[in-house]
């Protein structure tokens, strides 16, 4: 079973995430976009027409990262922290994965996000 995670890591002292069983669809991603500003990699669903429509209607500024540039993506840095936590948990049963992901996200602090944004040169 595959789980897809949509993550928001903000510099305004908040984080949030959503976990979907299976892949993330265009519709799910478009619903998630109803936030502030977004930096996205080149995942296919990020370029869907519905995504552009939601961004335009919500007056959300978008920034697409250059291809193959995980060093510019703060979510990649967050992913490293989450994966390290999950490796320690050693979850081997699919039904136990979502609660483990919740616990992993509970370890992410706003100060972590700010550090990741700084390391990617998005903020001073």
TrEMBL record:
GO terms for molecular function: nucleic acid binding. Residues 32-95 form the Tc1-like transposase DDE domain. Gene3D superfamilies: Ribonuclease H-like superfamily/Ribonuclease H. Pfam families: DDE_3. InterPro entries: RNaseH_sf, Tc1-like_DDE_dom. PANTHER family: TRANSPOSASE. This is Transposase. The lineage of its organism: Bacteria, Bacillati, Bacillota, Clostridia, Lachnospirales.
């Amino acid at each position: 079973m595959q789980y897809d995670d949509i993550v928001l890591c903000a510099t305004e002292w908040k984080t949030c995430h959503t976990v979907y069983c299976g892949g993330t669809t265009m519709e799910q991603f478009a619903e998630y976009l109803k936030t502030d500003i977004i930096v996205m990699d080149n995942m296919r669903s990020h370029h869907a027409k519905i995504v552009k429509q939601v961004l335009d209607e919500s007056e959300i500024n978008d920034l697409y990262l250059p291809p193959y540039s995980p060093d510019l993506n703060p979510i990649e840095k967050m992913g490293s922290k989450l994966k390290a936590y999950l490796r320690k948990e050693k979850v081997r049963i699919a039904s136990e994965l979502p609660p483990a992901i919740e616990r992993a996200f509970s370890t992410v602090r706003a100060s972590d996000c700010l550090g990741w944004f700084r390391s990617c040169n998005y903020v001073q």
